[in-house]
Write a structure and sequence with these properties.
Layout (H helix, E strand, L loop, with lengths): L1 H33 L5 H15 L5 E8 L5 E4 L17 H8 L3 E3 L9 H9 L4 E8 L4 E9 L7 H29 L6 H5 L1 H14 L3 H15 L3 H13 L5
Antiparallel strand pairs: 1-2, 1-5, 3-4, 4-5
Helix pairs in contact: 1-2, 1-5, 2-5, 5-7, 7-8, 7-9, 8-9
Length: 251
Amino acid sequence: MEVGLVNLEMRESVGETLGVLETAGLLRELTAGLIGAMDLDAALTILVRIARDGVAGVSWCGFTSLRAGEPAGAVASDTRLAELDDLRHGPDSPAMAAIGRRELVVAERLSAETRWPEWTWRARGLGVSAVISAPVDIDEQVIGALNLYAGARELLTPRHQLTAMLVAEQAGLLLAAVRDRARAVAEAGQVDVALLGESVVGQAIGVVMTQRGCRAEEAVTVLRSAASSLGIPLREVAERLITTVSRPRDN
């Protein structure tokens, strides 16, 4: 009996470790994917794809965004389900509940859900059985919700809820950096637009902005300083940084 209990505890411990490693890998992939995006829309498209593909048990992923002075926006990993993230079909939805309350919203069984009748009816008709909506704070002008959907044969567990919270928090930081970089490009003369537009250098600028919480101008200065100190071209410094960030860890 004691041996059985030990084996059970070992299996649970291994499962928890694997879960942590999977989540760490997902966040790393998310970082590597978003740092190269040059605008918010492109970044959101990458975000929903990575979340859909990287979270086991999630069949689809969407993002609902509210931007100051603009209509609400939506991005979906599957265009067939895009209407579930789009507020034009009505604001009564899990995404708006998460945005309004600034907390995780979970519906484990839509078959028994009563909070959003019309939205739930449409979701079930599209094959969705459960949803998690996690609020994402980007900056003072943009907020949103990351929406994870399960199909008929999938379940969304407490581990999915934790993963959604972690992904939403990381995404918020990265998306804020993307917004900062886009603003810097629009501010003529402050940063060399051609430099920011060069893919690998632009990605490296995003990495520095994310790591240091700084604007694009300071990130460019950091990269140029490194290039000068090492005596190598700026592009090579950028390539080394991107390679380091994107390299999978052994543990």
